[in-house]
Amino acid sequence: MARLQVRRRGTTTLLVAVAAALAGCGDDEARTGASTTGAPVSSPAATSSTALAVAKPVVKKSPDSEAPATAPAHWLPPAAWVYNHWLPYDESRLYALLGITREQLWAQLRDDKRTLAQLAAEHGHPDPAKLAAELVAPRAAAVGPTRAAELRRRAVSTITQGHLAQHLFFHSLHQFAIPSAAPDIFGVTDATFRELRRQELSPLAIGRLQGRSPAAVEGQAIAVLHERVQSGVKGGAMSAEQGRLLLRRQLTQLPRWLDQARYNGPPTTHRGDLVQKPKDYASNPAISATGRFVAYEAYRQKLPLAVKLGEIAVLRADLRTGRTRLVSAIPGKGTGGPNPISAYNPGISGDGRRVAYESSTGNQNFAKRYGRIGTLLADTRSGRIRAVGTPIRGTADSQSTWGPEVASDGRRMIYQAVRGGRTVVIARTLPSGAQTTVVAGQKAGAATYRDPFEPTVSADGVRVAYTLATGTVADAAQARSSIRVRNLRTGRVEVASRADGRGGAALGGFSADPAISPDGRFVAFTSTAPELGVKAGSVGLFLRDLDRGRTRRIPTGAARPLDPAVARRGRTVAFTAVGKQAAQVMAWDANRGTARVVSAAGGTGTAPADGFSSDPSISADGRRIAFGSTATDLGAGEGDGARAVYVHDRRTGRTRRVSDPEVAYAGQKLPPAKPAPAPPAAPPPAQPDLPATPDAVDAPSTVFVTDNAFVDGEQRPTVLVSPGTLVTWRWRSRQSHSVQLRTGPKRFASKVRQDGSFKYRFQEAGTYELVCSLHAPGMKMKVVVGQS
């Protein structure tokens, strides 16, 4: 019997947006070559007898001696070299001088309160200033005495400040460069991009909703990373060797980062206090082909226990018995403190027995996931959990594996990795472990790129569909994204994103977001192709019959579709319909030719529920659809607005809540409930209301500095003035910013600041291109001074 594979790339839940946080650490790989699965673990069955690590006090304030008194634990110095990872010395020299490995450095810096200075003292270098001088020495003569002194000061900071060092060495893609270029790359403002990331939309999904192809997004992101490294090297902030190492890490991590939905940054704070009290929640469901089991993520938001256990766990609900079990393992005690390990992004076999998921170690202060991402496969019958994929040692390439999906028959699984600098999709036969490369991208670092994204496998493991993104880094207009399907039995690769007909024409626009039916015959995908009748500025949803060569459009109304899931023989397609203010889960019926709301108020009818619903997963027969939602009126018990996982039965019309995040705590004693503290003073809005035209006090030459944008009626303004005009920049932001000349007749720059104003009188005619030194190249503007 054909069974449905489950395709999970992460939740696309939309929530009410909150203001952007201070600089926090994002979704990035930490350890190169260090296993995330080698730490001792216990099976869920042995939870009650497992000795767990002793939780350390939760760090609420920054341990950085240079931080303001109210700075949160994740505070970073507001400086361009920090935000862009311009390490002032060669990383390889540090390892040589101390006689340590990168793994030893991670073990030390996993706790923000530990420093590189302590590790250096253990290895014969007790004086941070002397060690800094030794690290910078090979570059001192070339950069000159003034620059060398500045590099030594920065080096001392990396040695003495724990979180700063953790950021520079291990958070390669926590940077402002790509978000600051969000208007160009993703079609939204920097602030909106950050808000959507906090609501767990992947960068690719954000771009797709704005009509930006995966290929165009990837190409422009590559170009931004290149520019930042080149700027650091050219300005003497880091060496060419260190620049090459950093860029290699970033480019090989980039495909995973672009397709990763879950947000890995800190909670939003204002003056050191949480803006909102965290709640346990669940998301990212994967339903078995039989419709009996649902695997999902449970987020532990009780911080002391999250630090002890890990921030996220994988659970499996049995809809027949009503029981929920912990699938992912409980970590054993670590060295030097707790050993939080998170598990997430599950895929499930057709009978619910096997669950594959990603796993990553977290830091010891607030459990955020900075370790190498590994792929694990759990057998819920035997309790055995084993690692899938082996990291390639001795390279700067990403060591992570990600995106696991189990074929419904349980005899094959797929996942992604980096091999030889190339992003690849790998098919693994179970239980033998024999592996086949389904598709390999182009080696990172070239002038062109060609990478696979979003792979999904048929029920028998024979056909794999994926998005292929190709382009030239220097020319985003040439980027192309199409849907390919490879038959692992015959080796044949065919293009599924075609116009109607067996010989259907190749499509313009872009196609992405594939989902393959259990029988491997049908592929659903989203597209902007005009050949398929998609109007400019819109995105359509389509279903391709590979056997008959037919392409059919699925109606989505004014909403934009994301994350389709296909039932057997293409009879039902579930998808997320994203509107201007909300997102709902819909189900299209091939016989009726219409789509109906799944996430309906009361569980039935056509009125959408009051929350944000998304991320559908469908049983093989199309009867049951699992999804995530923040709704409180789904007819499944009143919710509290926290995300939860639901299952809708299309036959009975009933919707039931199936998630139980408390199971993730594995019987640990939960802290007693406390009265909610008084909320902190409301932070100013991320993008305050500003006059479209400056008032008389400010006219005619005032520019507002908001969070991550210069504003004069619009973002990225061009201000036209005559010689002798005094231009004023007024800060209206919560984050630190500066005004700095990039190109122009006369150099000038403001200090990095969070409030106040800066003035400059323009005397010489010409065009002045200005940036914020912390958020370049995207936070920019021009001043054009005409002739007198």
From TrEMBL:
Residues 672-688 have a biased composition (Pro residues). The keyword 4Fe-4S does not apply. Keywords: Signal. Residues 645-695 are annotated as: Disordered. The keyword Signal applies. Pfam families: PD40. SUPFAM superfamilies: Cupredoxins (SSF49503), DPP6 N-terminal domain-like (SSF82171), Tricorn protease N-terminal domain (SSF69304). Residues 1-23 form the signal peptide. PANTHER family: PROTEIN TOLB, PROTEIN TOLB HOMOLOG. This is Tol-Pal system protein TolB. It comes from Paraconexibacter sp. AEG42_29.
